[in-house]
Write a structure and sequence with these properties.
Structural class: alpha/beta
Protein name: dTDP-3-amino-3,6-dideoxy-alpha-D-galactopyranose transaminase
Shape: globular
Number of strands: 13
CATH topology of the largest domain: Aspartate Aminotransferase, domain 2
Largest sheet: 7 strands, mixed
Bound molecules: pyridoxal-5'-phosphate
GO molecular function: pyridoxal phosphate binding; transaminase activity
Family: Belongs to the DegT/DnrJ/EryC1 family.
Organism: Chryseobacterium salivictor
GO biological process, one term: polysaccharide biosynthetic process
Strand content: 5-15%
Number of helices: 12
Order of helices and strands: HHHEHEHEEHEEEEEHEEHHEHHEH
Length: 367
């Protein structure tokens, strides 16, 4: 029995009939962009998140890029301003900042949950700081009252990279509705995945929402009249139709991930493997990834491979060590670098069988 890291085919076949009916309907409608499917999905997504605004865009990176671009257009940020961002994140979070000629200021993570260490943030604030980007990494909410107070005290925006955490909540508030604006990704492997690329922004300020919508459509509100130098970043009708079907089941899918994670946390018992902490408040984590740490990662990964269990690494090289950011290569973030050397992601998904879960536990306990 081979266990795939993520069986996308099986995930989508859960909703085969409904998805296929919607695909056919959209195909036959003759309307493929900026239509009712996107409008409908945006309305349902906004309602689900509890946000007054949702805007469908082409992908998760664009969602984040457009948030900053809109703040620049609105004069609330300017080139050279500083944005505090976790050093331990996927590179997209950082690209969204630098693409807008803003400056990323990296903050170390907390080794307990791998998210930005909120206690480290205040020391990084300067007169140029305009925002804090939090990334709800691996599906776990990164939020606290202290963070909120800090943002208020220094008049900073909080941008959420919610690419990995749709459905998670803090104190009854969904991620994507905690800060000022949030970017979502519907990359096929995310908890809410499209059949291709897709993304969305949610935000509280309706003027910001309007600016993002305009920027994503060539900077145009009225056809052939261009208010900004925008981009073409639209969610298409087919993706929106599929996402709207899957959105109805996201809580159910996340709940399955959570029950697998809970079982892993209580039944994997091996001193060589550091498990993630299952949060006391269950809703704070939607387990996009189940990430363990170990000293000899390659050895563990090979052992699992030999036993038919596919694993991945999220992520092997942090943004500040990438060639793309060679002018940051000299920076040192020991906690981030340690995490990048030790992490390994185990399979977790809403379609894993009981036997698969048992087998993973058994093999890990044997290692
Ligand atoms: C997936 C992801 C993104 C980017 O989303 P795309 O849709 O692939 O552009 C951004 N940030 C994080 C943390 C992600 O995991």
């Amino acid at each position: 029995m081979d266990i795939k890291f993520l069986d996308l085919q099986k995930i989508n076949l859960q909703y085969q009939e409904e998805i296929e009916a919607k695909l056919l309907e959209t195909f036959r409608s003759g309307w493929y962009l900026l239509g009712n499917e996107v409008k409908n999905f945006e309305k349902n997504l906004a309602h689900y998140i509890g946000s007054p605004n949702a805007i469908g865009v082409a992908n998760g990176l664009d969602a984040l890029r457009l948030i900053f671009k809109a703040y620049l257009e609105l004069g609330q940020m300017k080139a050279g301003d500083e944005i505090i961002v976790p050093a331990n994140t996927y590179i997209a979070s950082v690209l969204a900042i630098t693409d807008n000629r803003l400056k990323p200021v990296f903050a170390e993570p907390n080794i307990e949950n791998y998210n930005i260490d909120i206690a480290e943030i205040e020391a990084l604030i300067t007169p140029k700081t305009k925002a804090i980007m939090v990334v709800h990494l691996y599906g776990q909410v990164c939020w606290s009252e202290e963070l909120d107070d800090l943002a208020k005290k220094y008049n900073l925006k909080i941008i959420e990279d919610n690419a990995q955490a749709i459905g998670a909540a803090w104190n009854g508030i969904k991620s994507g509705n905690l800060g000022d604006a949030a970017g979502f990704s519907f990359y096929p492997g995310k908890n809410l995945g499209a059949l291709g690329d897709g993304g969305a922004v949610t935000c509280k300020d309706s003027l910001l929402a309007k600016t993002i919508r305009t920027l994503a459509n060539y900077g145009s509100e009225e056809k052939y009249i261009n208010k900004y130098q925008g981009l073409n970043s639209r969610l298409d009708e087919i993706q929106a139709a599929v996402l709207d079907v899957k959105l109805k089941y996201i809580d159910q899918d996340n709940e399955k991930r959570r029950s697998i994670a809970e079982k892993f946390c209580s039944e994997i018992k091996n001193p060589k493997i550091i498990l993630p902490i299952f949060p006391e408040e269950k809703k704070e984590h939607v387990w996009h990834l189940f990430v363990v740490r170990t000293d000899h990662r390659e050895k563990l990964q090979n052992f699992l491979q030999e036993n038919g269990i596919q694993t991945l690494i999220h992520y092997p090289v942090p943004p500040h060590k990438q060639r793309a950011y060679r002018y940051y290569n000299h920076l040192s973030f020991p906690v981030t670098e340690k995490i990048h050397h030790e992490v390994l992601s185990l399979p977790v998904s809403p379609v894993m069988t009981e036997e698969e879960v048992e087998k993973i536990i058994e093999i890990l306990n044997k290692y």
